[in-house]
Amino acid sequence: MISYVNESWHSWFNVIKNKVAEDILDITDDSGNMAWEYVHHKGLAYFARNCLDKPWTNHMAILLLTRALYQYDPNTILGTIRELTPRFNDFFSHFSLENVDQFIPDEHIYQYLTLKVFEDHTNAKRAKFVNYYNSSVRVSHEWVRAKCSADKAEKLKQYLLPKFSYLAREIKVWRDAHAAAEAGRKSETDAVVSYYPELRAEAHMRWNIINRLRKQYEKALDFMEDNHISPPFEFSYLDNVNEKASYAERLTFSIWDKRSWMLANKDKFDSGTIRRYRNRVKPGDYFLEFVKCEVINSAEDLPPIKPTGLWFEELLRLGMVGGRAFYSEKDIELRKARKEYLLKWGYGDEQKVNSVPRPFVTEAKGVLTQGNFIVKMQPKAKGVIFKLDPLFSAATFGLAVLDIITTTGARVSEVLQIQNTKDCFIVKNIIEGDRRITRYLFRVIPKGRTEPENFYLAKESVKVIVEVKNMLARHYPNGEIPKIKFNGITGQLLDHESPYLFQYNYKGLNRQDVTACLRFLTHGMIFQDQTGNPINLKPHLLRHAFANHLQQVQKIPLDIIASILHQKDLKITDYYAEPTDSQVAVTTHDFQELMASHLEINSSVLRGPEELVEALKEANEKVGVYTQALGGSCSIDAICPVKMACVGCGAKIPDPEKKQDLMVYKKWAEQSVKLWEDQQQPLEANKMKIAMRNAEKELYEIGLIEKFREDELYEPEIRFGSNAPATPLVTKRKGKTGNENIQPG
Known about the structure:
Blueprint: H1 7-16, H2 22-25, H3 41-50, H4 57-69, H5 74-94, H6 105-113, H7 123-147, H8 150-156, H9 172-193, H10 196-226, E1 233-242, E2 247-256, H11 258-264, H12 271-280, E3 287-297, H13 313-317, H14 325-328, H15 332-344, H16 372-377, E4 384-386, H17 388-408, H18 412-415, E5 425-432, E6 435-444, E7 453-457, H19 459-475, E8 503-504, E9 507-508, H20 511-522, H21 539-553, H22 558-565, H23 570-577, H24 581-584, H25 588-596, H26 609-617, E10 632-634, E11 652-654, H27 659-678, H28 682-712, E12 719-720, E13 731-735, E14 738-742
Antiparallel strand pairs: 1-2, 1-12, 2-3, 3-4, 5-6, 6-7, 8-9, 10-11, 13-14
Helix pairs in contact: 1-3, 3-5, 4-5, 4-7, 5-7, 7-9, 9-21, 10-17, 10-28, 17-19, 17-20, 17-21, 22-23, 27-28
């Protein structure tokens, strides 16, 4: 078992030790070690702040302690007491209970679940409470019965919460909430799973756009410094280039600092404010103004085209990625506009009139945060003003978390553990005959485990991780990624500081931070459920979609999916992989064709021990990450689930470098269709048709990858000043041998 004792643990334990019964304080594990050492300090902190001097203090203490002794994940334990504590406060206050003996679950919880009390509570909140209550009480009773001597058990019995005799599924509220939660999850997954390749490609394209802006901005700053030019200073360049259609967009920006901005807008401020900024504010601390976006059309006969611009322009205009000024804003009309805009994109609750959701807010300084000055000045600006570095860092982190989860199915807590060390990020070179195969992986500790496990990466994901490292190297003064404490509750990593990749300003990012980064990068991409309601992306939704795709589309067996997702409970995996409504609606004919190509796999019946033993005998043919996969890279560190049928396998990540192999495979499948049809073998012909479609699908995905790879190579020519002569539409791309000018058309 893992001890969480550290400086923070000691400080919180000192707070609670005189507030908890002695019989609970002196509980030990099987080896005689103090049981409280296995409670994470964040759990102790919450307990100390919220659960002391209550009639149920000792009862909550034993719930906390017994879950820790059974080695529940610290996040799960913290979530449990966070859910139970406010409900206990509600019950004891509403029913005027003075001690736990007066608390009767079959009466009080039953009233809660049958909507007799707390009318404003949702069904989901009620169902969640009873789930946590029942599981926690069961664990505490089981531990006392199984682990304690008769004398000790008798002493602790008074601190055990009474059981609720009803089964949750017997209560309509629970059934309704459970059904609604499943339907919501399936609806969200349904909206996302069909757009996996496009989602990844668009995210890469957007990162390319903001990366090009960063490069042009740095060129402009260097030009200003070399020529001793004070802001404001204007520059522009071509982007969103479409060579086939002979058009592009010219993006124009101005560089400002606080002093120059205030002096240029002095008619909007009082003389004292202007004098303060003129005399006290030093030059520097630059920010950008997005002045305009113009379509440059080389073909006169083309119809007018609306410019694309920057995908995050409206977010900045409404001040939704700003600092604290956003939240204290007293402009009712502006708050209303923000609320309406966010509701349109699926954020927030229309019933909560006075609350404005905060989907693009981070706790990490320098990631998305714009600061009070920018937010306050935005309404006074003609264009959109912003600090670029916080947006670029957010886009980079957002791309990294999206790319890693959509190719590995990893949890956010696992992604956040990635470190810039040889023990975490590993490159394996495997010799196969006269060829050397390179495999990339990172090793982190999955939820509920105590040792690191392998997560295999695609080359594109590796490139994204390298971009994160490059960004951090530019961000920190000495170019080295510093060692910091892990900003999470995976306690195994808290014993020592490490150079975590998801960090900024010497602080690790948390779940909220990376979720905000993901939403920022993907904002404006339209995902809707079958009723037309917008769906907003969350990292865990991508994990659900990943599992669903493997099971429902690629027919990977459930136990293999559990291995890829690093899940212990196959019931959870089955829940993740359940078919969506759209998938259920697939025609019987298409379903039979898919099954015909994977006859050896049954997605609803797990393979028995005898079958696994037989599969192990075929170890030389198991493939996995250690051998070549046709058309891409395998991500399964286990027995091949489709017996080397790599084309169409969801565990394989398509690789543009192996495009030719897929084209040869597709041609072979086309020829095989005709051959089997001539032999009057429709089943075999159907298999080959499925093989053709799988090859076409992977070639499409490779085409998307090639598109954003080509976009990465585009290097626009910067133009300084607003009166420079017009230039023809010329793109400049960096190839293997240098820069090449490519004329459109």
